[in-house]
Design a protein that fits this description.
The protein is mostly helical and about 160 residues long. It is built from 6 helices and 2 strands, in the order ββαααααα. It has a two-stranded antiparallel ribbon.
Length: about 160
């Protein structure tokens, strides 16, 4: 089986519900940016392998976040008002994921010094790569905002992205 389909050669791609849209559609902008975020998190994970203190803890959580970003992609690719009930159920993104992320943030916050100013992106390869992921996440959030407003994706998708930044 070939790994290419040629179905996008005319500048369109399909959503999970089968609908075809132009590749520069706002849905694909959001999907592409969340994919870029997942890749940047993957790079951070590789750098964290060398960190004996935070490495194992963060690698576990970041890997989970990568999986959840795949779920977010499925949610975005299934417009809420134009998809079957079974597809909507299969791709729903529950607030339980936001709640879990908040728990992790609260856990880590107890270990870190109190923030009194903005942080300059630096601090080693892992830290710098996480700063890149954070800024890509902000862009993803901006691309998802109009989709959430138009009820194309679940509101919890936007909230989850917001918590990550």
């Amino acid at each position: 089986m070939k790994i290419y389909t040629k179905t996008g050669d005319q500048g369109t791609s399909s959503l999970y519900n089968g609908e075809r849209r132009q590749k520069d559609d706002e849905i694909f902008e959001a999907l592409g940016t969340t994919d870029e975020l997942t890749s940047n998190i993957g790079m951070a994970i590789e750098f964290l392998e060398d960190d004996a203190h935070w490495g194992p803890y963060l690698v576990d959580r970041l890997t989970t976040i990568q999986c959840l970003l795949q779920d977010i992609g499925s949610n975005i690719a299934t417009p809420r008002q134009q998809s079957s009930e079974s597809r909507l159920n299969r791709t729903a993104f529950d607030m339980v994921h936001v709640n879990k992320l908040e728990e992790w943030i609260d856990e880590m916050d107890t270990e870190l010094p109190r923030l009194t100013q903005f942080i300059l992106p630096s601090g080693g390869k892992a830290s710098a790569s996480l700063h890149i992921a954070r800024s890509v996440c902000r862009r993803a959030e901006r691309h998802v905002q109009p989709l959430s407003r138009a009820q194309i994706c679940d509101d919890s998708v936007l909230i989850f992205l917001n918590r990550q930044t």
